[in-house]
Amino acid sequence: MKTTAQFFKALSDETRLRILALLVCGELCVCDLMAVLDLPQSTVSRHLAYLRHAGLVEDRLAGAGEAPVLTRARHREALEEAAGALARALEAPPEAPELLAEDMRLALRELGRITGRVDVEELLDVVFRDFCIGK
């Protein structure tokens, strides 16, 4: 439970979310992140340390600087899907709250793929799809 809490705390800061969004596109060194985010090195490094502690990024030495990257391809894919769902949710018309709710559900499902939290519906879907005779 503590790991899950650390993960969500890591996602609770706007700067860390911006860093993850940048890293989804590829490896960036700290100096690149500083330039894009317009933040000092100490602030960027502190946020990267938080993301590293949560298991979301790792360091790679690349020449004189370190290039943080998302730790797993599946994390990158899940974050891309979650970001897309959240972007669609923001564009949902106010008269259609069911569209907003569905996009929020999809974003939560993608984050659940990273944290290991599984919805009952997903579990039943796998059971009936893979184990039921006649399907």
Structural key phrases:
2 domains, mainly alpha, Arc Repressor Mutant, subunit A, 4 strands, two-stranded antiparallel ribbon, 135 residues, 7 helices
What is this entry, summarized?
The protein is mainly α. It has helices spanning 2-10, 14-24, 30-37, 41-53, 73-91, 97-115, 120-130; strands spanning 57-58, 61-62, 65-66, 69-70. The chain contains seven helices and four strands.
Give me the Rg, rounded.
18 Å
Distance between the termini: 36 Å
> What is the overall silhouette?
globular
Cross-sheet strand order for the largest sheet? 1-4
Largest pleated sheet:
2 strands, antiparallel
Q: Identify the CATH architecture of the largest domain.
A: Orthogonal Bundle
- For the secondary structure, the number of strands is 4
**Please, how many helices?**
7
Low-pLDDT runs: none
Amount of beta strand: 5-15%
Structural class of the helices, strands and pairings? mainly alpha
Count of all domains: 2
